[in-house]
Specification:
This protein is an alpha+beta fold. It is built from seven helices and eleven strands. The longest helix has 18 residues. The radius of gyration is 18 Å and the shape is globular. The termini are far apart.
């Protein structure tokens, strides 16, 4: 029998309607994107998985109940996308990998949404955020003056969130190594729509790459992904 922390006896979180898998789609050849909306309790997610002892230990180490749900939902989503038997692990930079080394993977969580992008042939990056005023209020810390100037007055909050997610996506696809969000990741001006593409670049002493990114709005979330 799988052993889990007894602290979960304190939680009686019951879902009124299971949302679960809301997207499983090939967004490009060999690039699979999945979205999972968390509307389940801990045990509903936990019982769908066959966790090993190391994974159970990691799960029990999280103090936050929501963090446990995020962790479980990513593994349930991965199982829905590629089947059982493939597990997620992380390197020293907290970059995710799979036990099947043929896959490239990127993962993102925010609020009640979890997303995974996978490819066997391309590097991938992904970020999503629940759109509130939090990140928009910090725009000056990660946007350059030209980027700030390009932000829509009418749709400022959503526009800034796409910028943030785009920079996070490029940060992830470049392995999170010695990259400054404001100085090293540059996003070209774009007009925010419900979905679209934009371009950006990562320029450091070690990296000089240009990228095409894709974004869309799902409910109140901004989602950005990239492959190369």
């Amino acid at each position: 029998m799988k052993k889990i922390s007894c602290t979960f006896a304190l939680y009686a979180v019951l879902s009124e309607g299971i949302m679960g898998l809301v997207m499983k789609k090939y967004v490009q050849d060999e690039v699979l994107l999945g979205l999972w909306e968390i509307d389940e309790d801990f045990f509903s997610l936990y019982d769908r998985l066959d966790l090993n002892e190391a994974e159970i230990s990691t799960l029990n180490s999280f103090k936050s109940y929501n963090r446990k749900l995020e962790w479980l939902s990513a593994r349930v989503l991965l199982q829905e996308m590629v089947g059982q038997g493939i597990r997620i692990y992380y390197n020293g930079n907290r970059k995710p990998f799979l036990t099947d080394p043929e896959y490239h993977i990127s993962i993102s969580h925010s609020h009640r949404l979890t997303s995974i992008i996978l490819s066997r042939t391309r590097r991938v990056g992904l970020d999503l955020e629940y759109v509130t005023g939090k990140i928009a209020s910090l725009a000056g810390k990660f946007l350059t003056p030209p980027e700030e100037k390009a932000v829509s007055r009418r749709f400022r909050r959503y526009h800034v969130y796409i910028y943030w997610c785009a920079k996070e996506t490029l940060y992830k696809i470049c392995d999170k190594q010695n990259i400054n969000f404001r100085e090293d990741i540059l996003i070209d001006p774009f007009v925010p729509e419900k979905s679209g593409t934009l371009t950006g670049k990562v320029h450091t002493n070690a990296i000089r790459e240009d990228f095409v990114l894709h974004y869309f709005k799902y409910r109140n979330y901004a989602v950005v992904w990239c492959c190369k």
